[in-house]
């Protein structure tokens, strides 16, 4: 993902989504704190839980255009911060 985001024209000005189970957000953020992902903060990666896709999939298919619907139902990741 980092190669795509940082090393290609495709990644420039793109929104990247990590799609994962609803209960894995904390784990995803912890993994993004690893040294291998040290530049991840530059990417503005968004977390998109499976549950949000399931709940909104029909509306997205019917009315969605572009990335706006996905951005609306996804969550900004904040690697390295404690969540309560």
Topology:
Blueprint: H1 2-7, E1 17-20, H2 25-32, E2 46-49, H3 50-63, H4 68-73, E3 75-76
Parallel strand pairs: 1-2
Antiparallel strand pairs: 2-3
Overview of the molecule:
With 84 residues, the chain is α+β, with helices and mostly antiparallel strands. It contains 4 helices and 3 strands; from the N terminus they run H-E-H-E-H-H-E. The protein starts with a helix and ends in an 8-residue tail after the last strand. 10% of the residues are buried. The mean pLDDT is 79.
Structure in a nutshell:
With 84 residues, the chain is of the alpha+beta class. 40% of the residues lie in helices and 12% in strands.
User: Secondary-structure element order, as H and E?
Assistant: HEHEHHE
Radius of gyration, in angstroms, nearest whole number: 14 Å
Distance between the termini: 28 Å
Spans where pLDDT lies below 50 across 5 or more residues: none
The strand order across the widest sheet is: 1-2-3
Task: State the shape.
Answer: flat
Q: Percent range for helical residues?
A: 40-55%
The chain-level mean pLDDT equals: 79
Strand content: 5-15%
Count of distinct strands: 3
Q: Main β-sheet, in a few words?
A: 3 strands, mixed
Features:
alpha+beta; 84 residues; three-stranded mixed sheet; flat
